[in-house]
Design goal:
single chain; binds zinc ion; seven-stranded mixed sheet; globular; alpha+beta
């Protein structure tokens, strides 16, 4: 198509190479949660690079990169090939195996590009898409933007069953939003998205909090009566806006900031105010159970990571973990126990990780919940739609039944003195 403008970038790749004003394809990631670098734009092909996050200290010792989210304009009727040429240098190159790119025409409904492939010899992720609309958005997973986060906390706070507090500010001066629901004596904590690119974690929270505040939901009502639920739906708003996979504004991996140990430092206002403020609040309320919500780039399943490597791991904690896991399998056909990380060796837990820190500090049930970027292939495959916001939300709602099952077992029974 001779009339279509094409362009090659002449300087370093940038977040946009927008030829749409000249009739060519426009690539642009300059928006909330956007991330990509553009190298070249031709009439039927686009060359892209994943953008690196700030350097992460500790044992990571690298610049993370994996998340992408951008729009492609002036593409109606064009069959365009998109090539991410540094996918092999990403944080989890094995995650591209079986991966299908997410796309949307309206930013509400997301679908998978089945014609996605990964060349592991050259480290290139590629997909081809014939667009039916002028503009299409592509992302690593359906984004849960900071704007949508604002809507979630606004809607939640309008419920008479919920109160919203701000625990502190991030390095970019954003509020760390904290929702409190229920009046019961048990204290349940559910936090999400220390890793901001794991956007399924906040879709999960939208489902969980929505069901909890639904006055027609009997299970939600029962949980509200028996427990106080503490929820931080997005622990890393700066990373969310900046389009990071794994780190906050200064490059801190917030799931390695929960105490000083080995190469890790204690949470601080200078480096990890998100963890500093949340951990202080957990200390203030106490904790009977803790769920840290994540996504895993490689494993095609929903699963819990346990805390078996903690110094205080015991038959009681193992039994609670088993009971909680079995209850989740009952509550959701998307959850399973067969596939996961496996357990740390005894005593080998990294207490800088959130769930391990909470297990050790409060001697309570604490898990890391992982959801897939791809599909729940191991127990409930849906190859066409794969893992979605809707499935994440349903899994979030199912957490209510799961909590109810274990609630009577969570606290150590008081040992009564039987001597008279
Ligand atoms: Zn994570």
């Amino acid at each position: 198509m001779a009339s279509i403008a094409s362009s090659k970038s002449t300087s370093l790749p940038s977040a946009y190479l927008d030829c749409s004003v000249k009739g060519g394809i426009g690539i642009n990631a300059n928006f909330d949660s956007g991330s990509i670098l553009v190298e070249t734009v031709e009439s039927d092909s686009v060359t892209l690079r994943l953008r690196s996050e700030p350097f992460t200290e500790g044992t990571d010792r690298r610049c993370h990169a994996q998340w992408f989210y951008f729009r492609s304009s002036q593409v109606k009727g064009r069959n365009v090939t998109y090539r991410v040429v540094n996918a092999g240098e990403s944080s989890y190159p094995a995650g591209w195996k079986n991966y299908k790119t997410c796309a949307s025409y309206d930013q509400e409904s997301w679908f998978r590009i089945q014609d996605t492939s990964y060349d592991d010899v050259n480290g290139v992720l590629q997909w081809k898409h014939l667009s039916t609309q002028d503009t299409v958005w592509f992302a690593y997973f359906a984004p849960f933007t900071y704007e949508r986060h604002q809507q979630l906390v606004a809607k939640s706070a309008m419920s008479p069953l919920c109160s919203l507090r701000v625990l502190g500010l991030t390095l970019d001066h954003r509020p760390i939003d904290y929702l409190i629901v229920g009046t019961g004596e048990m204290h349940l904590w559910v936090n999400a998205r220390v890793h901001p690119g794991e956007s399924m974690a906040e879709w999960f929270m939208e489902g969980f909090i929505g069901a909890l505040l639904d006055e027609t939901n009997k299970a939600g009502e029962a949980l509200r009566q028996q427990a106080t639920i503490h929820a931080v739906p997005n622990m890393n708003p700066d990373g969310t806006v900046r389009g990071h996979l794994r780190t906050n504004a200064c490059g801190a991996n917030l799931n390695r900031e929960w105490c000083s140990t080995g190469d890790y430092t204690a949470p601080s206002l200078e480096r990890s105010p998100e963890v500093y403020h949340v951990l202080n609040e957990v200390k203030a309320t106490g904790c009977d159970a803790y769920v840290d919500v994540h996504g895993d780039e490689e494993i095609e399943a929903n699963f819990f990571a346990d805390c078996a490597g903690c110094p205080n791991w015991s038959p009681r904690l193992k039994s609670l973990f088993d009971q909680f896991s079995d209850a989740y399998c009952e509550a959701s056909e998307d959850f399973q126990r067969g596939k996961g990380y496996g357990s740390d060796a005894p005593g080998q837990a990294n207490l800088a990780i959130g769930a391990d820190q909470i297990t050790n500090r409060f001697n309570c049930l604490a898990v890391t919940l992982e959801m897939p970027f791809k599909d729940a292939t191991y127990n409930n495959p849906e190859p066409e739609r794969q893992w979605t916001p809707e499935r994440s939300k349903a899994l979030g709602a199912a957490l209510i039944h799961t909590f109810l099952e274990v609630l009577p077992s969570l606290r150590l029974k008081e040992v009564k003195d039987t001597k008279l």
